[in-house]
Amino acid sequence: MIYEAATWAAVLVLGPGALAVFGWFLWSLAGRPRRSRRR
Amino acid sequence: MMVPMVSGLAAADWAILAAYLGLMLWIGRVAAARIGRFRDYFLAGGALTTPLLVCSLVSTYYELDVTLATSERAFYDGLVAWTWESRPYYVAILAAALLLTPRLKRERAAMTLPDILDRHYGLGARVAGATACFVYSLPITALAGLTTMLTVLGMPPAAGLLLATLVCAVYTAGGGMWADMMTDTVQFVLMSVSLAVALPLALDRVGGFGALAALPAGHLTSTGDASPWLRLSWVCAALTIFVEPFFYQRIFAAKDARDVRKAMLVGIVLWAAYDWAVTMMGLLARVAVDQGLLPGATEGRESLVALSLLALPVGLKGLFVAGVLAAAMSSVDSYSLLASGNLTYDILRPLWPRPLLDRVLIRLTRIGVVAVLAAGAAVALLFERISDAWMFMASVLVASVLVPVLGALFLRPRRAAGLAACLLGLAGLAAFYAWIYARGAPDPAEGSWVWRSGGVEVWREYAVLFALPCSALGYAAGNLLGRKS
Questions:
Q1: Which helix (H) or strand (E) holds B209?
Q2: Distance in angstroms (rounded) separating the CA atoms of residues B402 and B411
């Protein structure tokens, strides 16, 4: 049934999917090069 | 009539709520330390990356009021809430991502939509466009949605609204767009995850997908009972995407056009999933009412929260209420910053006799954020029925700036075309509203106004269908009669 498939897909996108986007955000913060104090 | 439900929040739920509000304040304090220039304050220094943009775009564009309206539509009318009221937005966002974003990133030094109007048409179009953007960006509907929810939850609406508004004012006025973006990421996670948890539990509570068979037949068809004209007016509402001030601000704040495009494409998947989940919750709430799990007097507007609180255990209830708060606050903070920027950066700065220093502009915008939030909270508390306000605000925006902005980005118009399109669009809109309220009659069943004659019906929701041709006419006349640039 198409409703079932769409609903479970939505749950996957909103649960693990949203957490993955948040992880991507944290990873992008951690991956940013630190500004050097020396010039 | 709303059914105030015993919210049944335990100490653990309240602790989650308090932790959420405390985290928002802490983020605002950290972000305030990064502010130097006005560009830092209003556009986060133009350094936004794709994941930040995804979180912010998705959470901000989902006002609580939109979420409640979608579940309400599903409760009363069925799947049409997704197929015709939500899906046109994904097409519009896709078109904006592919066509608009690269053009906008070429508008160097622009920070807002009125900047584009100014560059192509001059100061008059800038002020007219900024005024329309200000009307659209007032966070009235999001705050009204919050008031409704607090009432449904059995919490004191005035105290709850003031607390949420105060927290928003502190972190948004203090930290500007950095605070807005960082809080949006937390709010995005809360909104999405709380819904992802609530939906399977709600399904389980009503007896699984098989229970949907008990719904009225029209509920599970793609068009429901919506007339073609009503569906057309929903499609036209999606045109707001092309002049959505908050999209423009995010595009200008992005590192480059590819970041925005990627964020919008990922966002479409998340928006579609969120809309579908909210639509399903509306359908399941209707089933729960028929089964006697929810009171018979449950209204469509409260169906999402009522069903969630029925299905969720202690602890997760607090997470869900924090998610509802986050859905409201993520829009309230962004739009209050935008509305304040319209007043200070777009209107006051160019009209001020001397150049305004960045620190003065930042201070004025901070005051503006607090003033806009105070005014929005007062309107939300004073007026009970303002759910139609969004349609009016969106009509003002589309009628006045859609034609001139698209003309500026894709054609080479003469300067007079911009102001003429703005003013004639607004005049057309005012004439339509004056006519429908003078000649039409209220329709209590639909909560709207309608003019009927010989089988023809004109609804108040058709305002943009009338105003847009007026705006296009003004644009053509200005282009034909105006002086060459």
A1: none
A2: 13
What is the Cα B416 distance to its own chain's centre? 31
Q: Dihedral of CA B396/B402/B403/B404: which sign?
A: positive
Q: How large is the ipTM? A: 0.84
**Cβ pair A17:B273 closer than 8 A:** yes
CA B148: distance to chain centroid?
A: 16
B189, B190, B201: which to substitute to probe chain A, counting the most A Cβ within 10 Å? B189
Distances (CA, A) of A35 to A32, B157, B403: 9, 46, 44
CA distance A36 to chain B (A): 17
How much is the pLDDT for B132? Answer: 95
What is the C-alpha to C-alpha distance for residues B230 and B225, in angstroms, rounded to an integer? 10
Tell me the average confidence (pLDDT) per consecutive run of 10 residues in chain B, 485 residues long.
Answer: 54 85 89 84 84 88 78 90 90 92 81 93 94 92 83 82 91 88 86 92 93 88 80 83 89 85 94 95 94 89 87 83 82 91 94 88 93 89 66 89 94 90 95 93 81 86 90 94 76
User: Is the CB of residue B281 less than 8 Å from the CB of residue B71?
Assistant: yes
Measured from the Cβ of residue B241, the count of other Cβ atoms closer than 10 Å reads 21
Residues counted in chain B: 485
Q: Which of A1, A4, A21 sits opposite B51 (nearest CB)?
A: A21
Q: Does the pLDDT at position A9 exceed 80?
A: yes
Write down the pTM of the prediction.
0.85
In angstroms, rounded to a whole number, what is the distance separating the alpha carbons of residues B368 and B337?
8
CB atoms within 10 A of CB B440: 18
Task: Decide if B63 contacts B327 (C-beta within 8 A).
Answer: yes
Rounded to the nearest angstrom, the minimum Cα separation between B291 and chain A is: 21
Q: Based on C-alpha coordinates, what's the Rg of chain B?
A: 22
Report phi then psi at B452, rounded to 5. -125, 140
Q: Please indicate whether, in this complex, the C-beta atoms of A18 and B189 are within 8 angstroms of each other.
A: yes
Sheet strands (E) in B345-409: none
> How many angstroms separate the CA atoms of B246 and B252, rounded?
10
